[in-house]
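Action item from last week, closing it out:
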Amino acid sequence: MIIRNLCAGLALAATTVTSAWAISVEEAYPEEYSRETPEWQAVLDTIDLKQGVQNLARVTLDVPQNYYFVNSKDAETILHDVWGNPPGDTVMGMLFHKDGYFIENWGVEIFYEDTGHVSDSDAADMDFDALLADLRSDMRSENRWREQNGYERIELLGWAEPPHYDATEHKLYWAKELDFETYETNVLNYNIRVLGREGVLVLNFIADIGDLAEVKTAAPDVLAMPSFTEGNTYADFNPSTDTVAAYGIGGLIAGKAAAKTGLLAAALLLLKKFWFVLLIPLIGLKNIIFGRRA
């Protein structure tokens, strides 16, 4: 199971708080940096790679020594300027494993969905096979819209990792394997949700299907980093005053949160250096933008 030793990891994170610090891309990856053009070096010079405790809205992120965190501004630089995706304002930051040049490696996009308190009462009885069938049906409808608007088809092949919910830590994860019409390798869409008092912390892995084993190995590390601050945890929910979401765990997997709030919860796939394809957000959104950058 992916969430192995999670409680121990969270306890360790709570007792080994480290002060935050940052280094430049040039310091972290001198060889790769030296191969970049002056124009790209100028872009990379604006990015700080951080470790230690990062204080985000409602959330604390304790980044260990084998990962780097970039803040909201720098994440937008990577997503928009480096990876050529549409600009946005919802990302809280991104995580990258320290091994491998970070912009050519898999990463984790982080943001918060102000959805209301999501009940987990449906988790134990969830029929994930039926949910997968519904997602495939939604994908067929989405593909009709995509074809009418000149975009390539995307097929949902199945679960790359079936949904799992940790009722103790209120953490949910699942992964889908997708087939893009013109891309030779299948795409990995790996999702983590951490339930809070009145919203959900979203961690989306940006990876290729070939990265699945590595992502599965990294998932416990990523799951152990975030924690909601006092007053914002799942246990802090007050039914007398707090907003309640109109869906449960199944709705999170099906993308009801994005459909309700209008968030573009897109994951990104690195095809080769500085040539990217924008992965679908969550099934059913009609305002998808699909683009490439040569």
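Closing note: Residues 1-17, 258-294 have pLDDT under 50 and may be disordered.
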